[in-house]
Amino acid sequence: MTAPRVVVAGGHSAGHIEPTMYRRAPSVRSRHRRRDPAVSGASDADVVLARHVLTAVAE
């Protein structure tokens, strides 16, 4: 049931998306500290995705 949450970015779905972002944030920061090129690329993608989701929710 993950697809409907992301597709419907509004209403009740916002409550489901935000806890996921908070849970993911610490892991992204720890990945940046390690400075692994491959992992940092993945974390950058996560950050970009997070911005898109948060922008959609904000609108």
Structural write-up:
With 59 residues, this protein is mainly alpha-helical. It has a domain at 35-59. The protein has 3 helices and no strands. The longest helix is centred in the middle third of the chain and has 22 residues, at 13-34. The protein is elongated, with a radius of gyration of 13 Å. Residues 1-5 have low confidence and may be disordered.
Outline the fold blueprint.
Blueprint: H1 2-7, H2 13-34, H3 37-58
Helix pairs in contact: 2-3
Region (Disordered): 24-43
Question: What tags apply to this protein structure?
Answer:
59 residues; mainly alpha; 3 helices; 0% strand; disordered N terminus
Summarize the structure.
The protein is an all-alpha fold and 59 residues long.
Helix share bin: over 70%
Q: Tell me the distance between the termini.
A: 23 Å
Binned strand content: under 5%
Shape: elongated
Q: Report Rg.
A: 13 Å
Give the class from helix and strand content and strand pairing: mainly alpha
- Would you tell me the overall average pLDDT? 57
Tally the helices. Answer: 3
Report the strand count.
Answer: 0
Instruction: State the order of secondary-structure elements, H for helix, E for strand.
Output: HHH
The low-pLDDT segments are 1-5
How would you sum up the major sheet? none
Region (Disordered): 24-43
